[in-house]
Design a protein that fits this description.
Blueprint lengths: L2 E10 L6 E6 L6 E7 L5 E11 L5 E4 L3 E2 L6 E7 L10 E7 L5 H6 E9 L10 E2 L11 E5 L2
Parallel strand pairs: 1-9, 8-10
Antiparallel strand pairs: 1-4, 2-3, 2-7, 4-5, 6-7, 7-8, 9-11
């Protein structure tokens, strides 16, 4: 049985004047949703994903925001031209990985929050995989308690 799980991504202090959006869909037919222009302060993206328990007790994520192969699921934040912004030099995506959220965590939480750096070491919009970069060595999803 698939249930709905609330996720929230807090993009910390991204560069001002750049558009960001959640990517809904795959390939060339995706749609940027919840588009926001940065003013240099944190941006918040909240959305729902489907999740069910696999036979080996691992979560299986699904839904229009979920990307990637089995066991390597992630969510994209679109940046600049990928978010539909015209006249910008930025055309990037930021991968927010879903592995790391366990089934044990899911049954204890009402949702999860990820706080990720919005700016890289050069002062540009962060992109690629946030957890593999020196920018955020302690990156992780945090449970939002049920109470």
């Amino acid at each position: 049985m698939t249930m709905e799980l609330r996720l929230q991504i807090i993009l910390e202090r991204p560069p001002a004047g750049v558009d960001y959006a959640l990517q809904k869909g795959h390939g060339s037919t995706y749609e940027p949703v919840d588009k926001q222009r940065s003013k240099g302060s944190d941006l918040a993206f909240e959305f729902m994903v489907g999740v069910r328990r696999n036979r080996d007790a691992t979560p299986v994520f699904s839904g229009p925001f979920v990307q990637g192969a089995k066991g390597e699921k992630f969510v994209y934040l679109d940046i600049g031209t990928y978010a539909g912004q015209a006249g910008t030099p930025w055309g990037r995506r930021l991968k927010i990985p879903l592995p790391g959220i366990t089934w044990t965590m899911i049954v204890k939480a009402r949702g999860f929050e990820a706080r990720v750096p919005g700016t890289d070491g050069k002062g540009e919009p962060s992109c690629a995989y946030v957890w593999r970069r020196q920018v955020s060595p302690h990156w992780a999803w945090r449970m939002l308690s049920k109470t």
